[in-house]
Fold:
Amino acid sequence: VQLAESGGGLVKPGGSLRLSCVASRLPFSTYTMSWYRQVPGKERELVAMHSGADGSTSYADSVKGRFTMSRDNSKNTVYLHMNSLKPEDTAVYLCNAVGYGMHYWGRGTLVTVSS
Structure:
């Protein structure tokens, strides 16, 4: 199983980015897919989750109204659309897949929000 994130980069405050995570070698549509973010010295934070069971999506309070997670099962891909970015959104963003008792992680993509 591989999860490959892309789309990170440097963006100014108030800007937007779209992250992608492509999954391979797993029954993608049945897995719960999530985006986390990691800042050195801090705990890994759950940003958004899309349930493979019921299709519901939930968000951390810190990103509600600014971030949107979407999923394309035909492409084995999840996206994180990030708008109105703030400096405190700077982090490595990681993709996570959970299903059948297994956890999988991508390597992450760095998002830097700075003027």
